[in-house]
Write a structure and sequence with these properties.
Length: 374
């Protein structure tokens, strides 16, 4: 049976760039292709959310293909808001499993720094329903509703939220491509601006520029002998209600995606050894960990406080720093999670990994299971 392997990946520095989408995509993909001579993609999938709004660029897959000097191939764009990178990865896997293609490149790029924060927030909030927008609701307020209920229902305080944010900032300090590299103190956390109670500045991911490219193929023999053969063994997708009521303690779209990925891979929650979970707001890591069955409902934040999910803990979650500190170029994050997991698996004993990427306010979600094969 055909399988899909992640051959290699490359991440740009996340933060702010003077490049546009086309240039940054070329730089990232060209670096990766030069590193892997002889790899001839048969398809190119480009992931992004809104280049037309951010930089006014259109028709990017064809232009990027031209810049890379590739021959004619199947080129298409995938857009599912903040899960665009993951949707592109899943589409690439489906193309490989179909037998029509043997290898391809997936590129995700976002240049968000050109718009002021106010315009950015309006653009990102456009994924909300008209009813939610009529109430002047923002994405951060949606996250805050969930955080408020979680803390209240399970008896936590902002002290535990600080511990979660501190973990992510500590991980970001060790990630050379991270947008935020800061040794966060408790005093800084509690004196920072409150964006939407109980979420403060250090609970919300930054607006980032960045790019990621992955090479996928059905033949793992091209891999260097000192690197693990990492196969995508399970994918799952859930599509919830755009008009759903925010503030829930679970995202049905995530639970559906996890269930499908577990079933397809033949794995169960107890098999997972490392995870990258969408944390545009810190509380989302907690909700995702519980939706994935990694912890019982109401217990994930306690496990963070106990160090279980630290980078060197029993079950590392977001060892890259997550969206919170690595950065969140929205159309890139789903791909970046996979690149970071592959890096972590090659540097550690972990051989089974899980990723979750969320589109919108928990609506269009993608789960991915990676397995290192001997």
């Amino acid at each position: 049976m055909t399988s899909a392997y992640v051959l290699d990946s490359h991440l740009s520095k996340f933060g702010k760039t003077d490049s546009d989408y086309q240039s940054l995509s070329y730089e990232t993909a060209n670096h990766l292709l030069k590193k892997n001579p002889g790899f001839l993609p048969e398809f190119l999938i480009f992931a992004c959310m809104a280049p037309e709004r951010y930089t006014g660029e259109i028709f990017l897959p064809a232009k990027i293909k031209e810049d890379l000097g590739l021959s004619s191939l199947f080129a298409i764009r995938s857009e599912t808001a903040s899960s665009s990178g993951a949707s592109a990865l899943h589409l690439a896997r489906y193309l490989l499993l179909s037998g029509k293609f043997k290898r391809g490149i997936v590129i995700g790029t976002e240049v968000m720094s050109r718009l002021p924060r106010e315009e950015n927030n309006l653009l990102l909030g456009s994924v909300l329903s008209s009813q939610q927008r009529n109430l002047a609701m923002s994405m951060a307020q949606g996250g805050a509703l969930t955080a408020t209920r979680y803390l209240r229902d399970f008896g936590y305080t902002r002290k535990e939220l600080f511990r979660l944010s501190k973990k992510l900032h500590d991980n970001g300090l060790e990630n050379k491509i991270a947008h935020i590299q800061k040794n966060l103190s408790e005093a800084e956390y509690f004196s920072s601006p409150m964006f939407s109670s109980p979420l403060c500045l250090y609970d919300i991911s930054p607006l980032s520029d960045g790019s990621c490219a992955l090479l996928l193929e059905t033949d793992p023999t091209r891999l260097e002998k000192d690197r693990k053969r990492i196969e995508i063994t399970g994918t799952g997708h859930g599509l919830g209600q755009v008009n759903g009521v925010p503030g829930g303690l679970s995202f049905p779209a995530s639970k559906s995606a996890f269930e499908q990925a577990y079933t397809e891979s033949g794995k169960k929650p107890s098999d997972i050894q490392v995870a990258e979970l969408h944390d545009a707001f810190t509380i989302f890591e907690i909700i995702a960990a519980e939706d994935a069955g990694l912890f019982p409902q109401g217990k994930a934040l306690a496990n963070v406080a106990e160090g279980i999910t630290d980078k060197r803990g029993r079950l590392p979650i977001n060892p890259s720093g997550g969206l919170k500190t690595r950065g969140h170029p929205v159309g890139v994050s789903g791909l970046a999670q996979i690149a970071e997991l592959c890096k972590f698996m090659n540097e550690n004993d972990s051989d089974i990994a899980l990723a979750l990427s969320i589109g919108g306010l928990g609506v269009n979600n993608f789960a991915t299971i990676l397995e290192a094969k001997k």
